[in-house]
User: Fold this.
Amino acid sequence: MMTRKLLGDGFNLERALAETCEVGYFFASGAISPYFCSLMQTEIGQINLEEGDHVNYPINAGTLREVQQLHQRAYFPVGHPEIPIATEVTRSLAHDVGNLIPCYPELENWCPTEAGYQRYRDSHDWISPHRDRRNDQLLSATITISGSALVRIYDPLDNPDDYTKLGQTDQFLTQSGTLLLLRAPGFGTGEQTIHEVLSPLIGSRTILNLRMRPDILKNPRAFEEKRKE
Assistant:
């Protein structure tokens, strides 16, 4: 078991949850300690990441909600033996959130079930504007392990499900140790935030996504096998 603190001393989790509940998202630099970022960087280097090509095979292809993305990734159930560090990070964050249950009773049972490592390799890797999966629950977290990129926040201009007509409302630059919290159904209004992840500014960028979901996302090989059926 790790004894070091996951969250930085200057990070105010109560404020982060309040803004996520009210606005839909919260971004903070230096939220995650360099010690844990180093451990996660080592762990991701030991995992076989597969390319997920949703440029040639877009999500919701041909609809107003079409999403294109390209990066390497691997998804695991929390507790999987290949990801002891991501599992401990998940449980530490859930414990810290649990300490604030008197303020946010709806988060009483929050504990991510899926840990997803991703690597954005270069200027060709990115994710177009999108919302996370509709069956996500309560609260989602993205930790930038290494590298930097812009993340942009949008509001729909008319049809809430039209990703082609959006107005940018915010943006921030990620770097090692930054944390992005996203509201999911069951927390606050449950309305999910439309966001876009641009390519790394220099070199590559690695992240850990933590989601509470009823099932684990398929890895790219499984998607490819399904297309061939």
Remarks:
- The first helix runs from residue 13 to 23.
- The domain at 13-228 is CATH 2.60.120.620 (Jelly Rolls).
- The radius of gyration is 17 Å.
- The chain is about 20% helix and 30% strand.
